[in-house]
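Support reply, case 0932

Customer input (verbatim):
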Amino acid sequence: MASFEMYREADPVMSKEIRDVVPAHYVLKIKSFSLFAKNNMGKYESGEFEAGGYKWKLILYPNGDKSRNGEGHISIYLAISGTNPLQLGGPIHVAVRFSLYDQICDRYLTEQGSVTRFHALKAEWGVPRYMPLKTFADLSSGYLVDDTCIFGVEVFVIKSSGVGECLTLKASASYTHQWKISRLPSLGEDYLYSDVFTVGDHKWKVWLCPRGDYSNRGQSLSISLGLVEADKLASGQKVNARYVIRLKGPNNFVHQPEAQTTSFSSSTVWWGWPSFMPLKTAMGQGCEHPMLRMTSFETCNEANPENKIEKHESGEFEAGGYKWKLILYPNGDKSQDVGDHISIYLAFSGSSPLQLGDPIHVAVRFSLYDQIRDKFFTEQERVTRFHAFKAEWGVPRYMPLQTFRDRSKGFLVDDTCVFGAEVFVIKGSAVGECLTLKKSTWYTHEWNICRLSSLEDTCLYSDAFTVGDYKWKVLLYPRGDPACRGKNLSAFLSLVDSDKLASGQKVNAKYTIRLKRQCKQVQSKDATSWFSSSAFEWGWRSFMPLKTVCECQTNDSWLIEAEVTVLGTTSKLP
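Our regenerated output:
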Protein backbone atom coordinates (compact mmCIF):
# COMPACT_ATOMS: atom_id res chain seq x y z
CA MET A 1 0.00 0.00 0.00
CA ALA A 2 1.37 3.39 -0.87
CA SER A 3 0.22 6.99 -0.96
CA PHE A 4 1.87 10.08 -2.39
CA GLU A 5 2.45 13.66 -1.35
CA MET A 6 4.16 16.61 -3.03
CA TYR A 7 6.75 18.51 -1.06
CA ARG A 8 8.23 21.67 -2.49
CA GLU A 9 11.43 23.26 -1.17
CA ALA A 10 12.29 26.07 -3.58
CA ASP A 11 13.60 24.07 -6.54
CA PRO A 12 13.36 21.30 -7.52
CA VAL A 13 9.95 19.77 -6.75
CA MET A 14 10.47 16.44 -4.94
CA SER A 15 7.84 13.73 -5.05
CA LYS A 16 7.50 11.73 -1.84
CA GLU A 17 6.02 8.28 -1.41
CA ILE A 18 4.58 6.94 1.85
CA ARG A 19 5.01 3.17 1.83
CA ASP A 20 5.23 0.10 4.03
CA VAL A 21 8.14 -1.59 2.23
CA VAL A 22 11.53 -1.48 3.94
CA PRO A 23 14.31 0.05 1.79
CA ALA A 24 15.82 -2.68 -0.31
CA HIS A 25 19.55 -2.07 0.01
CA TYR A 26 20.68 -0.20 3.07
CA VAL A 27 19.28 0.99 6.39
CA LEU A 28 21.07 3.32 8.78
CA LYS A 29 19.72 3.49 12.32
CA ILE A 30 20.99 6.32 14.51
CA LYS A 31 20.53 6.47 18.26
CA SER A 32 21.08 9.68 20.26
CA PHE A 33 20.85 11.79 17.15
CA SER A 34 21.09 15.05 19.14
CA LEU A 35 24.67 14.20 20.09
CA PHE A 36 25.78 14.86 16.53
CA ALA A 37 25.69 18.55 17.36
CA LYS A 38 26.97 18.20 20.92
CA ASN A 39 29.94 16.11 19.79
CA ASN A 40 30.61 18.47 16.89
CA MET A 41 30.11 15.79 14.23
CA GLY A 42 29.05 17.61 11.09
CA LYS A 43 29.23 14.62 8.76
CA TYR A 44 28.81 10.87 8.97
CA GLU A 45 29.84 8.26 6.37
CA SER A 46 28.32 4.82 6.66
CA GLY A 47 30.11 1.56 6.09
CA GLU A 48 30.26 0.06 2.62
CA PHE A 49 27.39 -1.85 1.13
CA GLU A 50 26.97 -3.55 -2.23
CA ALA A 51 24.29 -2.97 -4.81
CA GLY A 52 24.34 -3.82 -8.50
CA GLY A 53 27.94 -5.05 -8.32
CA TYR A 54 29.34 -1.79 -6.93
CA LYS A 55 30.37 -0.67 -3.45
CA TRP A 56 28.55 2.31 -1.98
CA LYS A 57 28.26 4.37 1.16
CA LEU A 58 25.62 6.68 2.57
CA ILE A 59 26.73 10.18 3.59
CA LEU A 60 24.68 12.19 6.05
CA TYR A 61 25.03 15.81 7.15
CA PRO A 62 22.80 15.94 10.26
CA ASN A 63 22.88 19.75 10.40
CA GLY A 64 23.05 20.40 6.67
CA ASP A 65 25.76 20.53 4.04
CA LYS A 66 26.66 24.20 4.21
CA SER A 67 28.94 23.94 1.18
CA ARG A 68 25.82 23.22 -0.94
CA ASN A 69 23.31 25.58 0.65
CA GLY A 70 21.89 22.93 2.94
CA GLU A 71 21.68 24.99 6.13
CA GLY A 72 18.71 24.16 8.32
CA HIS A 73 18.12 20.83 6.58
CA ILE A 74 19.15 17.20 6.68
CA SER A 75 21.52 16.59 3.74
CA ILE A 76 21.92 13.08 2.37
CA TYR A 77 24.13 11.62 -0.37
CA LEU A 78 25.01 8.34 -2.03
CA ALA A 79 28.67 7.90 -2.98
CA ILE A 80 30.76 5.30 -4.68
CA SER A 81 33.16 3.89 -2.14
CA GLY A 82 36.82 4.76 -2.58
CA THR A 83 37.69 1.08 -2.64
CA ASN A 84 35.81 0.62 -5.91
CA PRO A 85 36.15 3.80 -8.01
CA LEU A 86 34.55 3.95 -11.42
CA GLN A 87 36.91 4.07 -14.37
CA LEU A 88 36.59 6.85 -16.92
CA GLY A 89 34.47 5.75 -19.86
CA GLY A 90 32.31 3.45 -17.75
CA PRO A 91 29.38 5.56 -16.48
CA ILE A 92 26.43 3.83 -14.92
CA HIS A 93 22.87 5.08 -14.50
CA VAL A 94 21.41 4.58 -11.08
CA ALA A 95 17.91 5.06 -9.70
CA VAL A 96 18.32 6.25 -6.12
CA ARG A 97 15.64 6.44 -3.42
CA PHE A 98 16.31 7.86 0.03
CA SER A 99 13.93 6.94 2.84
CA LEU A 100 13.14 8.10 6.35
CA TYR A 101 11.18 5.89 8.73
CA ASP A 102 8.00 7.22 10.39
CA GLN A 103 8.09 5.35 13.72
CA ILE A 104 4.57 6.40 14.70
CA CYS A 105 2.80 5.18 11.56
CA ASP A 106 5.31 2.39 10.86
CA ARG A 107 5.88 3.64 7.29
CA TYR A 108 8.69 5.02 5.19
CA LEU A 109 8.73 8.46 3.63
CA THR A 110 10.54 7.65 0.39
CA GLU A 111 11.66 10.09 -2.26
CA GLN A 112 10.58 9.02 -5.71
CA GLY A 113 13.40 7.41 -7.62
CA SER A 114 15.77 9.93 -9.10
CA VAL A 115 17.91 8.65 -11.94
CA THR A 116 21.42 9.98 -12.00
CA ARG A 117 24.66 9.06 -13.69
CA PHE A 118 27.79 8.10 -11.77
CA HIS A 119 31.24 8.16 -13.37
CA ALA A 120 34.86 8.97 -12.54
CA LEU A 121 34.14 12.69 -12.36
CA LYS A 122 30.89 12.30 -10.47
CA ALA A 123 31.19 9.70 -7.72
CA GLU A 124 28.62 11.27 -5.38
CA TRP A 125 25.02 12.39 -5.70
CA GLY A 126 22.35 13.42 -3.22
CA VAL A 127 19.91 15.97 -1.86
CA PRO A 128 21.44 18.89 0.07
CA ARG A 129 17.98 20.02 1.31
CA TYR A 130 16.42 16.64 1.96
CA MET A 131 14.21 17.68 4.88
CA PRO A 132 13.95 20.80 7.08
CA LEU A 133 15.36 20.16 10.55
CA LYS A 134 12.22 21.70 12.03
CA THR A 135 10.04 19.09 10.29
CA PHE A 136 12.45 16.30 11.14
CA ALA A 137 12.51 17.17 14.86
CA ASP A 138 8.72 17.62 15.11
CA LEU A 139 7.58 14.87 17.51
CA SER A 140 4.27 14.46 15.65
CA SER A 141 6.08 13.54 12.43
CA GLY A 142 7.48 10.34 13.93
CA TYR A 143 10.91 10.66 12.29
CA LEU A 144 12.83 11.32 15.52
CA VAL A 145 11.51 9.29 18.46
CA ASP A 146 13.48 8.86 21.70
CA ASP A 147 16.34 10.60 19.90
CA THR A 148 16.43 7.73 17.38
CA CYS A 149 15.87 7.81 13.61
CA ILE A 150 16.22 5.45 10.66
CA PHE A 151 17.37 6.37 7.16
CA GLY A 152 17.41 4.10 4.15
CA VAL A 153 18.51 4.02 0.53
CA GLU A 154 17.72 1.95 -2.53
CA VAL A 155 20.10 1.77 -5.47
CA PHE A 156 18.14 0.65 -8.59
CA VAL A 157 15.87 -2.41 -8.27
CA ILE A 158 17.59 -5.43 -6.73
CA LYS A 159 16.81 -7.83 -3.95
CA SER A 160 17.47 -6.75 -0.42
CA SER A 161 20.95 -7.72 0.71
CA GLY A 162 20.02 -7.38 4.38
CA VAL A 163 22.99 -5.10 4.98
CA GLY A 164 22.69 -2.26 7.46
CA GLU A 165 24.23 -0.76 10.51
CA CYS A 166 23.19 0.85 13.80
CA LEU A 167 25.11 3.97 14.83
CA THR A 168 24.85 4.57 18.60
CA LEU A 169 26.22 7.95 19.70
CA LYS A 170 27.42 8.41 23.26
CA ALA A 171 27.67 11.50 25.42
CA SER A 172 31.17 13.00 25.43
CA ALA A 173 32.74 12.04 28.76
CA SER A 174 36.29 13.35 29.01
CA TYR A 175 38.93 11.14 30.61
CA THR A 176 42.61 11.91 31.18
CA HIS A 177 45.27 9.21 31.46
CA GLN A 178 48.75 10.14 32.71
CA TRP A 179 51.90 8.25 31.74
CA LYS A 180 55.20 9.24 33.33
CA ILE A 181 58.37 8.42 31.39
CA SER A 182 61.88 8.74 32.79
CA ARG A 183 64.96 9.51 30.70
CA LEU A 184 62.95 10.16 27.51
CA PRO A 185 65.91 11.65 25.54
CA SER A 186 68.13 8.62 26.22
CA LEU A 187 65.58 5.89 25.54
CA GLY A 188 66.77 3.55 22.82
CA GLU A 189 63.70 1.33 22.57
CA ASP A 190 61.97 1.15 19.19
CA TYR A 191 58.61 1.68 20.88
CA LEU A 192 56.89 1.83 24.27
CA TYR A 193 53.32 1.19 25.41
CA SER A 194 51.48 2.88 28.27
CA ASP A 195 49.32 0.99 30.73
CA VAL A 196 45.84 0.15 29.49
CA PHE A 197 43.00 2.48 30.53
CA THR A 198 39.24 2.36 29.95
CA VAL A 199 37.09 5.05 28.34
CA GLY A 200 33.55 4.57 27.02
CA ASP A 201 33.49 0.77 27.64
CA HIS A 202 36.61 0.34 25.50
CA LYS A 203 40.24 -0.17 26.47
CA TRP A 204 42.99 2.06 25.13
CA LYS A 205 46.73 2.59 25.36
CA VAL A 206 49.28 5.06 24.08
CA TRP A 207 52.12 3.99 21.76
CA LEU A 208 55.38 5.93 21.73
CA CYS A 209 58.40 5.73 19.41
CA PRO A 210 61.12 7.75 21.22
CA ARG A 211 63.25 7.82 18.06
CA GLY A 212 60.39 8.09 15.56
CA ASP A 213 58.50 5.47 13.58
CA TYR A 214 59.88 3.97 10.38
CA SER A 215 58.94 7.03 8.31
CA ASN A 216 60.42 9.56 10.76
CA ARG A 217 63.32 7.61 12.20
CA GLY A 218 65.84 9.91 13.81
CA GLN A 219 63.79 13.03 13.02
CA SER A 220 60.66 13.17 15.14
CA LEU A 221 59.12 11.59 18.18
CA SER A 222 56.05 9.55 17.11
CA ILE A 223 53.00 8.95 19.27
CA SER A 224 49.58 7.34 18.69
CA LEU A 225 46.42 6.22 20.46
CA GLY A 226 45.48 2.57 20.09
CA LEU A 227 42.25 0.62 20.63
CA VAL A 228 43.04 -2.49 22.68
CA GLU A 229 41.42 -5.76 21.61
CA ALA A 230 40.23 -4.21 18.35
CA ASP A 231 40.21 -7.72 16.87
CA LYS A 232 37.25 -8.53 19.11
CA LEU A 233 35.04 -5.91 17.47
CA ALA A 234 32.17 -7.28 15.43
CA SER A 235 32.41 -7.16 11.66
CA GLY A 236 31.80 -3.57 10.57
CA GLN A 237 31.86 -2.22 14.12
CA LYS A 238 33.65 1.12 14.60
CA VAL A 239 34.42 3.27 17.63
CA ASN A 240 34.49 7.03 17.10
CA ALA A 241 36.76 8.87 19.54
CA ARG A 242 37.98 12.43 19.96
CA TYR A 243 41.38 12.69 21.63
CA VAL A 244 44.46 14.79 22.20
CA ILE A 245 47.88 13.76 23.51
CA ARG A 246 50.00 16.21 25.49
CA LEU A 247 53.68 15.90 26.32
CA LYS A 248 54.67 17.75 29.47
CA GLY A 249 58.25 18.38 30.57
CA PRO A 250 60.19 20.49 33.03
CA ASN A 251 60.19 24.28 33.03
CA ASN A 252 56.42 24.29 32.29
CA PHE A 253 57.07 22.80 28.85
CA VAL A 254 53.88 21.51 27.20
CA HIS A 255 53.53 20.25 23.62
CA GLN A 256 49.97 19.68 22.42
CA PRO A 257 48.80 19.31 18.81
CA GLU A 258 45.21 19.85 17.76
CA ALA A 259 42.68 17.27 18.89
CA GLN A 260 41.70 14.55 16.41
CA THR A 261 38.47 12.64 15.81
CA THR A 262 38.94 9.14 14.42
CA SER A 263 36.91 6.00 13.81
CA PHE A 264 38.78 2.98 15.19
CA SER A 265 38.04 -0.51 13.92
CA SER A 266 39.61 -3.96 13.63
CA SER A 267 41.53 -2.76 10.57
CA THR A 268 42.28 0.74 11.90
CA VAL A 269 43.70 0.19 15.37
CA TRP A 270 46.19 3.06 15.70
CA TRP A 271 45.84 6.76 14.97
CA GLY A 272 48.08 9.64 15.97
CA TRP A 273 51.01 11.77 14.97
CA PRO A 274 54.07 10.26 13.15
CA SER A 275 55.78 13.65 13.51
CA PHE A 276 54.54 14.55 16.98
CA MET A 277 57.57 16.62 17.94
CA PRO A 278 61.11 17.10 16.53
CA LEU A 279 63.65 14.96 18.37
CA LYS A 280 65.84 17.99 19.01
CA THR A 281 62.96 19.53 20.97
CA ALA A 282 62.40 16.32 22.94
CA MET A 283 66.13 16.12 23.67
CA GLY A 284 66.07 19.66 24.97
CA GLN A 285 63.05 19.07 27.23
CA GLY A 286 63.76 15.63 28.61
CA CYS A 287 63.82 15.39 32.38
CA GLU A 288 65.87 12.24 32.42
CA HIS A 289 68.03 12.71 35.50
CA PRO A 290 67.22 12.50 39.22
CA MET A 291 66.57 15.59 41.28
CA LEU A 292 68.47 16.21 44.48
CA ARG A 293 66.16 17.42 47.25
CA MET A 294 67.74 18.92 50.36
CA THR A 295 65.70 19.55 53.49
CA SER A 296 66.72 21.52 56.55
CA PHE A 297 69.31 23.39 54.49
CA GLU A 298 69.81 26.22 56.97
CA THR A 299 69.59 23.92 59.99
CA CYS A 300 72.57 21.94 58.81
CA ASN A 301 74.68 25.02 58.23
CA GLU A 302 73.77 27.54 60.92
CA ALA A 303 71.91 26.05 63.85
CA ASN A 304 74.62 23.45 64.45
CA PRO A 305 77.97 24.98 63.38
CA GLU A 306 79.87 21.97 64.66
CA ASN A 307 77.97 19.71 62.27
CA LYS A 308 78.13 22.10 59.30
CA ILE A 309 78.13 20.19 56.00
CA GLU A 310 80.85 21.58 53.76
CA LYS A 311 80.26 19.13 50.92
CA HIS A 312 77.52 16.75 49.87
CA GLU A 313 77.80 14.00 47.25
CA SER A 314 74.59 12.54 45.86
CA GLY A 315 73.97 8.92 45.12
CA GLU A 316 74.84 7.49 41.72
CA PHE A 317 72.65 8.00 38.67
CA GLU A 318 73.06 6.88 35.08
CA ALA A 319 73.11 9.03 31.97
CA GLY A 320 74.49 8.28 28.53
CA GLY A 321 75.83 4.89 29.59
CA TYR A 322 77.94 6.27 32.47
CA LYS A 323 77.51 6.58 36.24
CA TRP A 324 77.48 10.08 37.72
CA LYS A 325 76.99 11.94 40.98
CA LEU A 326 76.13 15.49 41.90
CA ILE A 327 78.45 17.35 44.30
CA LEU A 328 77.24 20.35 46.25
CA TYR A 329 79.12 22.83 48.45
CA PRO A 330 76.35 24.60 50.41
CA ASN A 331 78.68 27.39 51.57
CA GLY A 332 81.02 27.49 48.59
CA ASP A 333 84.02 25.48 47.47
CA LYS A 334 86.83 26.81 49.64
CA SER A 335 89.47 25.15 47.47
CA GLN A 336 88.39 27.55 44.73
CA ASP A 337 88.40 30.47 47.18
CA VAL A 338 84.60 30.68 47.14
CA GLY A 339 82.76 31.42 50.35
CA ASP A 340 79.59 33.36 49.50
CA HIS A 341 78.10 31.21 46.73
CA ILE A 342 76.55 27.81 46.21
CA SER A 343 79.08 25.62 44.35
CA ILE A 344 77.85 22.69 42.28
CA TYR A 345 79.68 20.01 40.30
CA LEU A 346 79.09 16.91 38.19
CA ALA A 347 81.51 14.03 38.67
CA PHE A 348 82.13 10.54 37.40
CA SER A 349 81.19 7.95 39.97
CA GLY A 350 84.02 5.83 41.35
CA SER A 351 82.29 2.74 39.96
CA SER A 352 82.88 3.83 36.33
CA PRO A 353 86.28 5.61 36.12
CA LEU A 354 87.42 6.89 32.78
CA GLN A 355 90.40 5.17 31.24
CA LEU A 356 93.40 7.09 30.07
CA GLY A 357 92.92 8.20 26.49
CA ASP A 358 89.12 7.87 26.59
CA PRO A 359 87.79 11.45 26.70
CA ILE A 360 84.06 12.07 26.24
CA HIS A 361 82.15 15.28 25.57
CA VAL A 362 79.20 16.01 27.79
CA ALA A 363 76.51 18.70 27.73
CA VAL A 364 75.63 19.66 31.33
CA ARG A 365 72.83 21.80 32.74
CA PHE A 366 72.30 22.51 36.43
CA SER A 367 68.87 23.53 37.76
CA LEU A 368 67.39 25.01 40.91
CA TYR A 369 63.66 24.77 41.59
CA ASP A 370 61.62 27.92 42.22
CA GLN A 371 58.97 26.56 44.60
CA ILE A 372 56.81 29.67 44.48
CA ARG A 373 56.39 29.85 40.71
CA ASP A 374 56.73 26.08 40.12
CA LYS A 375 59.55 26.57 37.62
CA PHE A 376 63.18 25.54 37.31
CA PHE A 377 65.94 28.10 37.14
CA THR A 378 68.25 26.39 34.65
CA GLU A 379 71.76 27.45 33.80
CA GLN A 380 72.62 27.62 30.10
CA GLU A 381 73.83 24.26 28.85
CA ARG A 382 77.60 23.89 28.69
CA VAL A 383 79.62 21.28 26.84
CA THR A 384 82.74 20.06 28.61
CA ARG A 385 85.21 17.21 28.20
CA PHE A 386 85.72 14.52 30.82
CA HIS A 387 88.78 12.26 30.80
CA ALA A 388 91.05 10.36 33.18
CA PHE A 389 92.61 13.58 34.47
CA LYS A 390 89.35 15.54 34.61
CA ALA A 391 86.61 13.47 36.20
CA GLU A 392 84.76 16.44 37.68
CA TRP A 393 83.35 19.69 36.30
CA GLY A 394 81.07 22.36 37.66
CA VAL A 395 80.35 25.96 38.60
CA PRO A 396 82.12 27.22 41.77
CA ARG A 397 80.04 30.42 41.83
CA TYR A 398 76.69 28.96 40.83
CA MET A 399 74.51 31.36 42.89
CA PRO A 400 75.17 33.95 45.60
CA LEU A 401 73.98 32.72 49.01
CA GLN A 402 72.17 36.02 49.54
CA THR A 403 70.09 35.43 46.39
CA PHE A 404 69.58 31.79 47.27
CA ARG A 405 68.21 32.68 50.73
CA ASP A 406 65.94 35.49 49.48
CA ARG A 407 62.45 34.19 50.27
CA SER A 408 60.93 36.05 47.32
CA LYS A 409 63.04 33.97 44.92
CA GLY A 410 61.42 30.70 45.98
CA PHE A 411 64.64 28.66 46.00
CA LEU A 412 64.63 28.01 49.75
CA VAL A 413 61.13 27.45 51.17
CA ASP A 414 60.45 25.89 54.58
CA ASP A 415 64.17 25.20 54.77
CA THR A 416 63.92 22.99 51.68
CA CYS A 417 65.51 23.31 48.21
CA VAL A 418 65.68 21.18 45.07
CA PHE A 419 68.70 20.97 42.76
CA GLY A 420 68.83 19.10 39.45
CA ALA A 421 71.24 18.12 36.70
CA GLU A 422 70.82 17.10 33.08
CA VAL A 423 73.64 15.15 31.47
CA PHE A 424 73.77 14.44 27.74
CA VAL A 425 76.75 12.41 26.54
CA ILE A 426 77.76 13.39 23.01
CA LYS A 427 78.89 10.14 21.44
CA GLY A 428 80.88 10.17 18.22
CA SER A 429 79.08 7.69 15.98
CA ALA A 430 81.13 8.54 12.87
CA VAL A 431 77.89 9.50 11.16
CA GLY A 432 77.55 12.92 9.59
CA GLU A 433 76.54 14.80 6.51
CA CYS A 434 77.73 17.71 4.44
CA LEU A 435 75.22 20.39 3.49
CA THR A 436 76.09 22.29 0.32
CA LEU A 437 73.92 25.33 -0.29
CA LYS A 438 73.37 26.52 -3.83
CA LYS A 439 72.53 29.90 -5.29
CA SER A 440 68.83 30.15 -5.83
CA THR A 441 68.24 30.09 -9.59
CA TRP A 442 64.66 29.58 -10.68
CA TYR A 443 63.72 27.57 -13.75
CA THR A 444 60.20 27.32 -15.17
CA HIS A 445 59.11 24.27 -17.15
CA GLU A 446 55.90 24.43 -19.18
CA TRP A 447 53.75 21.41 -20.00
CA ASN A 448 50.69 21.66 -22.26
CA ILE A 449 47.87 19.14 -21.79
CA CYS A 450 44.82 18.88 -24.03
CA ARG A 451 41.42 17.48 -23.00
CA LEU A 452 42.41 17.16 -19.35
CA SER A 453 38.82 16.47 -18.24
CA SER A 454 38.56 13.41 -20.53
CA LEU A 455 41.98 11.83 -19.98
CA GLU A 456 41.83 8.19 -18.95
CA ASP A 457 45.46 7.86 -17.86
CA THR A 458 46.08 6.87 -14.28
CA CYS A 459 49.17 9.06 -14.18
CA LEU A 460 51.16 11.23 -16.59
CA TYR A 461 54.78 12.42 -16.57
CA SER A 462 56.07 15.58 -18.17
CA ASP A 463 59.30 15.65 -20.15
CA ALA A 464 62.40 15.75 -17.99
CA PHE A 465 64.02 19.12 -17.32
CA THR A 466 67.24 20.06 -15.54
CA VAL A 467 67.55 22.36 -12.53
CA GLY A 468 70.63 22.60 -10.31
CA ASP A 469 72.42 19.67 -12.02
CA TYR A 470 69.45 17.39 -11.37
CA LYS A 471 66.70 16.13 -13.66
CA TRP A 472 63.05 16.56 -12.71
CA LYS A 473 59.59 15.65 -13.96
CA VAL A 474 56.06 16.67 -13.06
CA LEU A 475 53.79 13.77 -12.14
CA LEU A 476 50.06 14.29 -12.69
CA TYR A 477 47.10 12.10 -11.71
CA PRO A 478 44.20 13.46 -13.84
CA ARG A 479 41.68 11.56 -11.71
CA GLY A 480 43.60 11.79 -8.46
CA ASP A 481 46.15 9.41 -7.00
CA PRO A 482 44.83 6.23 -5.30
CA ALA A 483 44.05 8.14 -2.09
CA CYS A 484 42.00 10.83 -3.87
CA ARG A 485 40.61 8.92 -6.82
CA GLY A 486 37.56 10.56 -8.31
CA LYS A 487 37.73 13.62 -6.09
CA ASN A 488 40.85 15.64 -6.78
CA LEU A 489 43.53 16.12 -9.39
CA SER A 490 46.92 15.20 -7.85
CA ALA A 491 50.23 16.84 -8.81
CA PHE A 492 53.78 16.06 -7.68
CA LEU A 493 57.36 17.01 -8.45
CA SER A 494 59.58 13.97 -9.04
CA LEU A 495 63.38 13.68 -8.90
CA VAL A 496 64.55 11.62 -11.88
CA ASP A 497 67.27 8.98 -11.32
CA SER A 498 66.91 9.29 -7.57
CA ASP A 499 68.15 5.71 -7.26
CA LYS A 500 71.54 6.96 -8.42
CA LEU A 501 71.94 9.26 -5.41
CA ALA A 502 74.65 8.23 -2.98
CA SER A 503 73.66 6.77 0.37
CA GLY A 504 72.47 9.60 2.59
CA GLN A 505 72.41 12.14 -0.25
CA LYS A 506 69.45 14.51 -0.37
CA VAL A 507 68.43 17.42 -2.59
CA ASN A 508 66.56 20.39 -1.15
CA ALA A 509 64.25 22.09 -3.64
CA LYS A 510 61.73 24.89 -3.49
CA TYR A 511 59.00 24.59 -6.09
CA THR A 512 55.67 25.92 -7.30
CA ILE A 513 53.21 24.06 -9.52
CA ARG A 514 50.59 26.11 -11.33
CA LEU A 515 47.64 25.00 -13.43
CA LYS A 516 46.51 27.52 -16.04
CA ARG A 517 43.75 27.64 -18.63
CA GLN A 518 43.50 30.30 -21.33
CA CYS A 519 46.46 32.13 -19.76
CA LYS A 520 44.60 32.44 -16.46
CA GLN A 521 45.83 30.76 -13.31
CA VAL A 522 43.34 28.23 -11.92
CA GLN A 523 45.38 26.72 -9.11
CA SER A 524 48.85 27.25 -7.62
CA LYS A 525 50.66 25.65 -4.68
CA ASP A 526 54.25 25.88 -3.46
CA ALA A 527 56.45 23.96 -1.03
CA THR A 528 60.02 23.20 -0.01
CA SER A 529 61.05 19.53 0.31
CA TRP A 530 64.02 17.23 0.70
CA PHE A 531 64.28 14.69 -2.14
CA SER A 532 66.19 11.44 -1.72
CA SER A 533 66.29 7.87 -2.99
CA SER A 534 63.52 6.95 -0.54
CA ALA A 535 61.50 10.18 -0.87
CA PHE A 536 61.74 11.16 -4.53
CA GLU A 537 58.23 12.53 -5.10
CA TRP A 538 56.65 15.43 -3.21
CA GLY A 539 53.52 17.43 -3.91
CA TRP A 540 49.77 17.45 -3.37
CA ARG A 541 47.27 14.61 -3.51
CA SER A 542 44.45 17.15 -3.34
CA PHE A 543 45.85 19.68 -5.77
CA MET A 544 42.49 20.66 -7.28
CA PRO A 545 38.91 19.30 -7.12
CA LEU A 546 37.88 17.33 -10.20
CA LYS A 547 34.63 19.24 -10.40
CA THR A 548 36.70 22.31 -11.30
CA VAL A 549 38.16 20.39 -14.24
CA CYS A 550 34.67 19.25 -15.26
CA GLU A 551 33.38 22.79 -15.26
CA CYS A 552 35.98 23.70 -17.86
CA GLN A 553 35.24 21.09 -20.51
CA THR A 554 34.99 23.76 -23.17
CA ASN A 555 38.41 24.97 -24.28
CA ASP A 556 39.79 22.04 -22.33
CA SER A 557 43.47 22.89 -22.91
CA TRP A 558 45.63 23.38 -19.86
CA LEU A 559 49.14 24.60 -19.12
CA ILE A 560 51.08 23.24 -16.18
CA GLU A 561 54.01 25.33 -15.00
CA ALA A 562 56.64 23.93 -12.67
CA GLU A 563 58.91 26.59 -11.21
CA VAL A 564 61.83 24.93 -9.42
CA THR A 565 65.03 26.00 -7.70
CA VAL A 566 67.55 23.81 -5.87
CA LEU A 567 68.48 25.31 -2.53
CA GLY A 568 71.12 22.81 -1.52
CA THR A 569 72.22 19.21 -1.17
CA THR A 570 73.46 17.00 1.59
CA SER A 571 75.86 14.09 1.40
CA LYS A 572 77.11 11.65 3.97
CA LEU A 573 80.58 12.34 5.37
CA PRO A 574 83.11 9.58 4.75
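We compared this against your earlier run and they match. Two observations from our side: The chain is about 5% helix and 50% strand. The first strand starts at residue 2 and ends at 8. Please reopen the case if you see a mismatch on your end.
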